[in-house]
Write a structure and sequence with these properties.
The protein is an alpha/beta fold. It is built from twelve helices and eleven strands. Helix 5 runs parallel beside helix 6, helix 7 crosses helix 8 and helix 8 packs across helix 9. The longest helix is centred in the C-terminal third of the chain and has 18 residues. It is globular. The N and C termini lie far apart (about 55 Å).
Length: about 300
């Protein structure tokens, strides 16, 4: 397939990848295919939106439990109270995987609300994409790839359990230097690395040097990242809700409603989504209506500052 502009690729849907590509081929090839529409010789073919939305994604069960998360609409769901300093309960929406899909990144960045957008360090034209997001009033994070359980391609720059502690620190610093200005990081995948106390300590030591916060995406219920952050003295928080495990608008609106309920009950809620087609549609509908719901949308740093007083 002949390379063409990203806009033409998106409209035509001409991209060819398959499961083997996602798991076995060099990560640079996959990223190039996603950005430019380069094909592989492998037989799986799907539309561009589908490929983008599956690229480097770890399958997350809907029922990963965080101590602050309401999983069902029940009266006895346990949540931990947050300091209610603000007059309204606070919500943060973090959008992960920013930068890889140029069009979807632009659509998220055009939402002029206090979103928190988390960029992958290996995206092309990263500085211009970040500037566009900043111009809309977004807070910027690094979405740091970390090793997942199972045979999952975590993408370029990933921190792995095979690395020495110094390699973890050096590679994280390289990523941090690519994505600026940032206030903090969260893990991309990472269900394996966030259970490794030595390597998460190395991560937190770098964040302490840089004065950055850590958001645990909670891709594993066994994550110890928050405990390590406490030990090192890093401001931190954990994700409460995944918005778009299903790329279905009604499902995502339901997850946003769940986020509201957690915030009303808990004083705050942190939700993570991705630059997916239906997520964008849901946010376009949900964001303008938030002002009438006695809830306040804020950058992640605002919640983290309150939680870590």
């Amino acid at each position: 397939m002949e390379n063409t502009s990203l806009e033409n690729i998106i409209s035509s849907g001409n991209i060819i990848l398959n499961e083997k590509t996602l798991n076995d081929n060099p990560s640079d090839e996959i990223t190039l295919a996603a950005e430019t529409g380069s094909s592989t010789s492998l037989p799986y073919q799907g539309d561009t939106a589908q490929i983008y939305e599956e690229l480097y994604e770890e399958t997350i069960p809907d029922d990963i439990i965080d101590e602050n998360t309401i999983l069902n609409h029940t009266d006895d769901a346990a949540v931990s109270p947050a300091p209610l300093i603000h007059k309204l309960p606070l919500i943060t929406i973090v959008i992960d995987d920013m930068g890889i899909n140029s069009q979807k990144t632009k659509e998220i960045s055009s939402l002029k609300y206090p979103l928190t957008t988390s960029f992958l360090s290996y995206a092309s034209n990263l500085n211009s994409k970040i500037e566009y997001s900043l111009a809309s009033g977004h807070e910027i994070m690094l979405h740091a790839p970390m090793e997942a359980l199972g045979n999952v391609n975590c993408g370029p720059d990933a921190l792995t359990t095979a690395m020495s502690l110094q390699e973890i620190k050096d590679n994280l610093k390289i990523m941090l230097d690519k994505v600026k200005p940032i206030k903090g990081i969260n893990n991309h995948m990472g269900s394996k690395l966030t259970q490794d106390s030595e390597r998460m300590t190395a991560v937190m030591e770098v964040l302490k040097e840089r004065g950055l916060y850590f958001l645990d995406s909670k891709t594993s219920a066994q994550s110890i990242a928050g405990d390590i952050a406490d030990e090192i003295g890093i401001p931190h928080a954990s994700r409460n809700v995944f918005l778009d495990n299903n790329n279905d608008k009604e499902y995502i609106l339901g997850q946003l409603k769940l986020t509201e309920e957690i915030a009303l009950r808990n004083g705050y809620a942190i939700a993570i989504g991705h630059p997916k087609s239906k997520t964008i549609e849901a946010l376009q509908e949900w964001l303008p209506a938030l002002a009438d719901k006695d809830l306040e949308l804020v950058h992640l740093s605002e919640i983290i500052n309150i939680l870590n007083l």
